[in-house]
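Protocol step 6 of 9: fold each sequence in the batch and record its structure tokens directly after the sequence line. For illustration, a two-sequence batch is reproduced in full.

Sequence one:
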Amino acid sequence: MKLTIKKGEHYDDNLFSTWPHIAQKLFKKIVTFDKTCEYELPVYSQGNVNKLFGGYFGLFAEHKNSVRFGWRWSFADKKIELLAYVYDAGKRNWDEQMRFPVVAQIDLDETVECSICVMPDSYVFEVKKDGKFVGEPVVVPHDRIPSWGFTQSLYFGGAEPAPHDMSVFM
């Protein structure tokens, strides 16, 4: 399915992107970013993390207990970076320099399988192409046994909206 975020917006045009789940153990999608996902933002926003898919646990908990693939265009490498993006008890999993772990870098128009396995004490992020790992799996510990919640889909930004129409196939 082609999902499009329109210029000046944050969310894709899919009305059915959020669904309830009960103790979901695997979030998985086949993903392709087309050439519209190359973008340039002001220098202070270029490193912001967009969200690809995942879920949160509890009610209104996306900034408290959630697990998602993040993504952004790497201007330096000319690739899409796929990132492990987690909130655990309200804390993000970034390091002291506010960097999230990079799971993989992929080319525009490259089709990959992205998965997040929910374990009792950690989340395991993997990216594969033709059954082989692209990059290395990333394990992010968490302190809470995930239960019910809602799935999440494509989102552009932090503060900046999409600078032009962008399409991702999932």
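Sequence two, same batch, same settings:
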Amino acid sequence: MLSLLKKTEDALASVMLIAHSPGTETLALTLSRKDGTATEEILRERIELKFPTGALACLRFAAEHWRSIEPGTGKLTDFIRPRDLSD
């Protein structure tokens, strides 16, 4: 999935990857910083605990080109599980 992400056209400001486990949680944990803020660490712990079907991990990168994204360079900004959504 990372190789596909790196092939994204730079004209696109955001991308949504939809995939199946265990690839989604592995990619989210691989790309997110391990020494991030306290909030990022809490989100990482939630992903490590369980990445349920339908969950969404949001990451932000300071890179100018998709091809320059590397493991540990993303800021984990949110992790939303279906049960977190209200009716």
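Proceed to step 7 once all outputs are recorded. Observation for sequence two: The two ends are 32 Å apart (CA to CA).
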